[in-house]
Specification:
By secondary structure, this protein is of the alpha/beta class. It contains nine helices and eleven strands. The strands form three sheets. It has a five-stranded parallel sheet, with helices on both faces. It has a four-stranded antiparallel sheet with strand order 6-7-8-9. A two-stranded antiparallel sheet has the order 10-11. InterPro entries: CheY-like_superfamily, OmpR/PhoB-type_DNA-bd, Sig_transdc_resp-reg_C-effctor, Sig_transdc_resp-reg_receiver, WalR-like, WH-like_DNA-bd_sf.
């Protein structure tokens, strides 16, 4: 999953980015509303963390512009402790959730996970596809209850596919959502990671749809699992 953090406090910005990257997300960052609005307009983020008290363009104006243009990216707003009116403004502008400063980083991470789950239609922190289970809270992946050790890029790839089960995901989309803007993107590496994932998981749940991309189909996974046991 690829996220954008728009926060002008350099220390807090760095803390948030570090925590998100350690949790396995690709993260871009902006220090003011003008840059943040531009990135939100031009890059395909899975979620955005947006401070409201930004220089150049305030957060409410940025969010209002995104929603007016039809951008549906989930947004968590950051607000000052004693300014409840900011929360109201933020929600009216189209925010999906808010976190009040100061906050515990674990709370922000939990809200990001919940927002990503809801936007993908999942109700709990554990996502299952046949014998494969991914716990978004712990970052743990298991197959038939047995843990599978993945690299950060392998985990990001599997997580994105599992969040979008039942839909064909192109290599280009995967490339856009797995790497931050500073990464030297090469869609050919996606094939490499897919191959590694298939080998490590040991079950045939990732289908290649020729000319279109990749598909995780829970029904196919269950069929494959049943055939294996038989």
């Amino acid at each position: 999953m690829r996220l954008l953090v728009v926060e002008d406090d350099r220390a807090l910005n760095k803390q948030i980015v570090t925590a998100l990257e350690q949790a396995g997300y690709a993260v871009d960052t902006a220090m003011d509303g003008e840059e943040g609005q531009f990135l939100g307009d031009t890059e395909p983020y899975d979620a955005i963390i947006l401070d409201l008290g930004l220089p150049k363009v305030d957060g409410v104006s940025v969010l209002t512009a995104w929603r007016r243009e039809g951008r549906k990216t989930p947004v968590i707003i950051l607000t000052a402790r004693d300014r409840w009116s900011d929360k109201v403004q933020g929600f009216d502008a189209g925010a999906d959730d808010y976190v009040t400063k100061p906050f515990h980083m674990e709370e922000l991470l939990a809200r990001v996970r919940a927002l990503l789950r809801r936007s993908a239609g999942h109700a709990t922190s554990e996502i299952s596809c046949g014998p494969v289970k991914l716990d978004t809270r712990s970052g743990r992946v298991t197959v038939d209850g047995n843990p599978v050790k993945l690299t950060s890029h392998e985990y990001r790839l599997l997580s994105y596919l599992m969040h979008h089960m039942g839909r064909i995901v192109s290599r280009g989309e995967l490339t856009e959502h797995l790497y931050d803007q500073d990464f030297d993107r090469d869609s050919n590496t996606i094939e490499v990671f897919i191959g590694r994932l298939r080998k490590k998981l040991g079950v045939d749940i990732i289908q290649t749809v020729r000319g279109l991309g990749y598909l995780l189909d829970a029904t196919q996974a269950q069929t494959t699992q049943a055939q294996t046991k038989t």
